[in-house]
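Record format v2
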Amino acid sequence: MNNNASPPRIYILNGVALLGLLALTIVASYLNLGVLNSIVTASISVASATLILLFYMHVRRSKPLLWFFVGAGFFWLGIMFVLALSDFLTRRWR
Amino acid sequence: MLSKSPTVPHQFDDAGQQREAATMGMWVFIATEILFFGGMFLGYAVYRCAYPEAFAEASRHTLILFGGTNAAVLLISSTTMAFAVRAARENRRWQLVLFLLLTASLGCLFLVIKGFEYSKEISERLLPGPSFHIAAAQPAKEEMFFYIYWLMTGIHALHVTIGIFLILIFAARACFTNAFVNRDTPVDLLGLYWHFVDIVWVFLFPLLYLVDRHS
């Protein structure tokens, strides 16, 4: 009846991938990568969250209107961060 | 769109449209939660930009074994929740009950581990307040990190607790009533909530525990 249930294999693979990313982010944090440390950590968090959104929260198989609703929350979050941090983000330009 | 349920409220064309409306409503709620946690993440970002060294030093005092284990526990619980949602869709009542109880147990395990972590931190005098003590050059700035740590993990733990109660109520209803027979949308929405709480931890864990582990 529903078009967006996934086969069990997908859920298991997704779980394994998420645990792998968790291990990766812990290992990466113990290596001295300089400025890259923050970038690597942030990228892994975003990747993990994306996997959860797409496969566990079934956004991948949802209609475009739902993508719009999902995106809206993160879009407002982005506006809040960019405007609030505009000073910190632009200080080096002076 | 096939509809198993014969009764659809009159404002909907069919069961599919009803499900879409409910899912969208849940996402609107999650958007408010994103902004709720977002405010705290923003506070964290501002203080970390202002006191980068103090945050790096304070983060090394967090207990990574507890935090890391809890991250794994929550990720596994998201997997079991995904299976619960799937069981509901396929109308497998006992599988649904089993996976809901598994998810709730993992949620409880998270809280128990968090409790041991909190008590260890209190004994190490890392709870902000009169007894706070940290051997550092700028204790007040490191105390700020721990204010944010306790606030964010506390509110996250509250969300986990609410989630566990909801899951147990759903499990009891699935067990003793026909509430979810041919009607899986509520379980689907509960799953969205639980996965969202997991996503918050996916960001909280590295920001609190992994700021500067290598030096």
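Chain B touches chain A through 54 residues (CB under 8 Å).
The longest helix of chain B spans residues 139-176.
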